[in-house]
Structure formats: structure tokens, C-alpha cells
Amino acid sequence: MVAFADLSLSFLLGLSSLTAPDTSSESLDTACTRNVRRSTVCEQIASEVSSSSVVYYTDSMQHMKDIYHWSASSSQPSECSFEPGTTEDVAIALRILGQTQTPFGVKSGGHAANAGFSSTPGVQIAMYSFSDVVYNSTTQTATVGTGLLWDDVYVALEQYGVTVVGAKVTAIGVGGVALGGGYSYLTNQYGLAFDSVVAFELVLPNGTVTDVTGSTNPDLFFALRGGFNNFGIVTRVTVKTYPQGQVWGGRVSYGPGQWDGATSAIANFWANVHDTKASIYNTYNLVAGVPEMSSILFYDAPTCPEGMYDDFLKIPHIEQDISTRSYVDLVQSLPLNLTSNLRSVFHWVAMEEVTVDMLDMIANETSFWGKELLKSSAVIVSYDVDLYVPTLYDHVDSPTAYPPSRDKGYSFIEVYYGWLDPKYDDEIFDALNLSAQHMTQALTDAGQNIADVAIYPNNAPPNTSLEKMYGDNVPRLQAIKKAVDPDNVMGLTGGWKF
Relative to the CA of 145, which of 180, 358, 452, 479 has its CA 20 to 30 Å away? Predict the structure, then answer.
């Protein structure tokens, strides 16, 4: 995730808008019938669920909260929102939605960027009430609700001296990371976030509530680790915890004319540092056409080994916020939410080697597209370089839906564009895809075998094929989906669909 630039709040206030459904081509009778039908579904859910759950309508502030997403391009007005309080009520709602064939969305933290992935014009399910964090010191696990942000989980577990592998920046929901992957500052040590999941509490499309583990249902356990909401609604996950004391780290920012030194520091780090407690996350940004670069430095101990990060700290820079601090303090010090309310899209390109030449290529992409897309209302263009050790996928014994191959780990380029005007959506998407293609070709020409590396589903742009994310796993995932959801109830919601 991006957005470590010092964005002015004036860029970001009042940018989101919820566009009403276009009924210009409908007759009045058709529009009324559509609205009455959906309103009836909302009322049916409200009448059948327990008092632990609530349905909110469009005149409610809570409804506005429920449909809100970090990205303006992902929010949609819905007929109503539903906050379930129990798994049984989730099951009741799923049954009603399936029977009436009503579109719905399932929102955890609301950080999905692709339109319609966790939003809907129908019934918006907001998982906020699933907000429990239960730590088991005997099994060294924590059971957490999918209505939580990872910040909440880190804070709740801090008192026990443990943490979990989750999001690396603030305000990210548990659901999308636990079901999609989860690259973290702790990934070099422990793997992806869902590599630490030992059980999913799942409401199946037929309304059955089940606990899915590697022993109770190996197929579903495989599918849920990367397969998102294709198989039902996950209400809680049980994850391994790890000892966590204070960490060393924070952000160093570089202005125009200082990028070359930072680029050399990144390349030297990749070539020479193999300590799995160490992590860096780097962003090349153009913010309203102004260049800015940041490196997030992390070491999983109160102090880092002498000299490890000197290359970053001794060169000229414009800002530094480095200290010994709690893990949650480091995560919350990075201002992701300053990019909220922009229209947003991501992309993802793998790297086998991180060299000065390749980093210069990434910096050039940032500068070119950051200036080129100003005329298309772009506010921020960001190319992030995430460095990982080649063993990052070695932390599970059983296969997962993503990545389709765990034979080798990679570092990655994460591309993010944020803009204002929806009339430029297609231009932005085209530019993003052109840039990803250019970088892939440049890396390939440099001898890096990365063209067929799976794209991370949480950062794949719209219309990415299933094969580009899940590879040879697609037929197995389609078979599992058909077995658990023969009526395609989960096809009524958004996301990558098998």
C-alpha cells in the first residue's frame, strides 16, 4: 500500500461521491418495481434476524458508514446495509439473498479498490460486529473477527506480548488480507498473513456454519487461502501468534535530487542483507506532479544491527521518523488514509533481482506517468518496491490458492494511481497496464524470469484473468466452488469469481 507522501488535506477533502443508479432508460414502473423489490428484501432480512443484528436504510448515518470505502471508485449507494451480529444471522441473510437473487456486497475494512468488489447497489453487508479478539495462550493462537482492522488486532494482542501477521499499514480490514494473502514486515520470518491461519469460521452459501481447517476440509482450507468470498462468508479466523516486543524503524523521506542516493541504498540492501528480521518498503511518488520518495525501515528488535541501515540514514533526506517503538505504533505512523476518497487502482510486477538499473527504470516510470496523468486528474502516482527474501513462501506445508507456485519467492513492484474524475477511468487503466507491460518487458530483457509470476489478487487491476493470479489452481478452485455453492449464491457478490 502506498501513500507515504505528505499529501495536503486540501487534495483529499470532499473528493468522494456516491452516484445514484442510472434509471434514465427505465420506465417509472420498472424503477419503482426494482426499488420496492430490494426494499422488501431488506425488510425481510430485518424481520427474520435476531436483535443482535441491524438493517440500516439510506436515511441513516450508519448506512453511510457501512457503504463507505477507502477508494471513491469502490463505494456504491445500496438499497440498505446489514450489520449481522451472529453467524446465524449471516446464514439467514444469505438464504434470503440467494432465494431472491439479490445482489450484495461483503465489507470488512472497505479497502478494496476495484469497483464492486465489496460494494453493491443491493444489500451491503458490513461485518463490524464481528469485532472480537480472543487470545489462547495455550495454543498460541488468536481468534479474530473479520469486522476488525488489523490495527485493532495488534492493539488487543500487545498486552500479551504477541502479534500476528497482518497488514503493514493502518486501516486495513482483517477479511481481505486473511482471505487474499497479506504481505507484512513480518513476512520474511513467518510468511503471508494467511500462512498463519489455522481455522476459518465460514458461513456456507446454504447457511451451514462450519469451522474449516486443514484436517476437517483440506479443499476448502486450500481455497480460502487466496480465494476470497467465493465459498461463503468468513466471520472469524484463528491465526498463529508470535512473540512481539518493541521494534526499530520508521520512515525516511527524500526530495528531488536525493533519489539516486536512496536508490543505491535500496539496491545495496537487497544484495547484502539476508536477515529475516529486517524489512524495507520503498515508495517512488509524484504527488500533484511533485516528486517525493520514502523508505520504510524495519527491524524486529529494539535496535538494528550496526550499520544495516546506514546507507539510508547518512545520505541527504528531507524527513526522518525513526525510533524504537511498539509494532502498532510503527504501523499507525504511516499515513495511508491521506489517500482516502480518491479513485484508485493497483498493479503488481515481480522482480528476481533489485538492481540500480531496475530501480532507475521504476523511478522513470513514476516521473513519466506522474506528469503524463496530471491532465487526467491524477493526484498521486506511486511505484512501491517491496523487498522479500526468496524463502518467503516456505512457511506452510500445504498448497494455497495463491500463489499457485511456492517454489520461489520474489520482491515486487506495487503500482498505485489515485485520481479524481471518473471520466478518466479508462485512460488511467490503460496507462497502468502499459506501465506494467513496459516494466515486465524491461525486467525480462534484463534476464529476469518474471513474466509468468502470479499477480497478487489484492493488487490486481480490474479485468485481470484468473489464470494470471491463480495459474494452474483455477480448475481445482472452480470445482470446489461448484461443490460448496451449486446455486451460485456467492456469484451475487463482487470480487474475483471462479
Answer: 479
